[in-house]
Model the fold of this input.
Amino acid sequence: MVESKHKWKAWLYLSPAIVLLLIFTVWPIINTLRMAMLEGYNGTAELGGAAFNFGIGNFVKVVQYAKFLTCLKNTLLLCVLTVPLSTVIALLIAVCLNSIKPLQRLLQTIFFLPYVTNSIAIGMVFATMFNIIGNNIGGENQLITTAGVINNFIGLFGVDPINWINAGSAYWANITVLVIYIVWDALPFKILIFLGGLQSINKQYYDAAKIDSTPKIRVFTRITLPLLSPMVAYAVITAFIGGFKEYSSIVGIFGEKMGPAGDQFRLNTMVGFIYDSLASNQQGLASAAALILFCIIFAVTMVNLYVSKKNTHY
Done:
């Protein structure tokens, strides 16, 4: 225990971190609350001496926005589809990796590579894979067309080309592409978490199961999964938080218009709405939307914590 006369030294050592937290974390939160409660707040107008009334007008405008429900629906849909899918796949891959001794380090590195790669760049690669391209070569009237890497692959099984992301594509096709990308992008971090948890499980449990000739599926459900439940709960909670903030994947695949040509902003999310409001110099509206998103994330996180508390074994 630090003696009371030496506590000032501890505060002195902590002061740089505290100052940075106050400037870049605490103050932005307070300022967001302030801007959200000032109706029609505009930073440029404030510099010009304009005054704004205190109220909940910004929140009302956000809820009444014509495409607010679309943004909310897209955000919730991506979370509901990607979080369970990515968690299950990551858990299975982690279990398989943990049982493979040769080349385990190399395989871990390969699976972790997407985590350290720029998400926008990866999104552009996915857009190219799902894109249907047609070009005139050499100024001639010869149209060179490719159905895309994915369509060429599924064509090997007799499936007709699908319009995934081009103009006129169906909503379900767009969502399918996004789910594939988001799940693939989320796997590395979850695999790392699960793999660390698996390697920390006491091997005596598995030795006892071997002596009793316990089936592998029962070992997984009765030993591995319960002892890994804290990592699963952590992965699910952080995945939901990340899912509600989804934005870069949509921009990487569909561009800043957040949708295929001819149906722009079809795939817009809550974070996309916030960025659009900031771009149009409506800081009050963006702040209100950010607080609404925070309340949704907080509520979902509390529910997850309540559920995981009953199913987590420490």
